[in-house]
Amino acid sequence: xxxxxxxxxxxxxxxxxxxxxxxxxxxxxxxxxxxxxxxxxxxxxxxxxxxxxxxxxxxxxxxxxxxxxxxxxxxxxxxxxxxxxxxxxxxxxxxxxxxxxxxxxxxxxxxxxxxxxxxxxxxxxxxxxxxxxxxxxxxxxxxxxxxxxxx
Amino acid sequence: xxxxxxxxxxxxxxxxxxxxxxxxxxxxxxxxxxxxxxxxxxxxxxxxxxxxxxxxxxxxxxxxxxxxxxxx
Lengths: 151, 72
Hints:
The complex is a heterodimer.
Chain A: H1 7-29, H2 37-54, H3 60-65, H4 71-101, H5 108-127, H6 137-141
Helix pairs in contact in A: 1-2, 4-5
Chain B: H1 6-14, H2 19-26, H3 30-37, H4 45-54, H5 59-63
Helix pairs in contact in B: 2-3
């Protein structure tokens, strides 16, 4: 689906869509805080426009915003996301520990975050080939290799 | 310590290319060329081969940090 959207528009479009969904959630919720949908609807397009502008800049951040990152920039993004995920997991663990200690009823969202992160990590290991151990070279060669220690 | 990117900088300047021109030729960003030349980023094997091929050299000649003649 993303292939139909020009690269420079992908992240701004995602932000705008997330803003609309977030605003819709506040409207559906109703009540006295329905007006939170208004700043959400204002902030999301503003952020999207900023990202679109940034996507045209000749910088690493611009390349990431414009979805035209090369291998080094993709690695930077990957490392940053990994760091963000680690911090989120640490924060969720602290939150869970505190919630349990004070006998709060809001402990379970932290557990959900930890569970999703853990499952995501396991899925990543499986998806990116941790199970592909390959065959030993003696099997490939059709004969037993000798260890220099034993020979 | 000899930087792995020194050879890239030497070859580029010898050919009178700008970092932006080399980046365009390799299909990477100018910032990545700067990082490689500064020794802050080691390129992937495909990119290392592309750089070596672009300069008509071998990868070890371009990136061997122990080779005093690297890039020369």
